[in-house]
Recover the amino acids of this structure.
């Protein structure tokens, strides 16, 4: 069997390429890719948890009240790891860190003062013992990140 040179070239090209397209150069800057990446989690579910557990102090839009600060500038500057650490394990009780997390006498005295209404409530509770916050901490971060970046407005997100 005899093949023409043109037929052979076409056959080899078809076999080699096989209909596949290969991008030889990435033309999208890494900044565009980073902007397109959304944090994991559900913004809607995070909004629901926020309304249930956080809005009383931080306001329904996370922009702060007399009882809690505006979270948007704070979340905009932190990554998910720091966010989780602050929300789940924060003890901001005006005590040194070495005393706030343990079973110190100063910590116990502060708890007694709060319970007997001799002192103001704790500024920011640690949420590590709250099952709903634990289960949806990634969603909570997704909601607050979207609010901080401006991709989510102050109202209820779409599902």
């Amino acid at each position: 069997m005899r093949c023409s040179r043109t037929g052979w070239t076409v056959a080899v090209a078809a076999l080699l390429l096989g209909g596949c397209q290969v991008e030889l150069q990435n033309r999208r800057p890494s900044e565009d890719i980073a902007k397109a990446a959304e944090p994991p989690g559900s913004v809607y579910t995070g909004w629901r948890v926020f309304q249930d557990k956080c809005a009383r102090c931080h306001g329904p839009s996370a922009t702060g009240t007399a009882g809690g600060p505006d979270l948007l500038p704070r979340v905009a500057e932190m990554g998910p790891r720091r966010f989780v650490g602050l929300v789940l394990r924060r003890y901001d009780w005006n005590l040194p860190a070495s005393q706030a997390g343990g079973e110190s006498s100063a910590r116990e005295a502060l708890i007694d003062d709060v319970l007997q209404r001799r002192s103001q409530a704790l500024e920011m509770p640690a949420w590590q013992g709250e099952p709903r916050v634990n289960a949806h901490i990634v969603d909570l971060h997704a909601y607050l990140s979207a609010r901080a970046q401006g991709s989510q407005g102050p109202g209820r997100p779409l599902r």
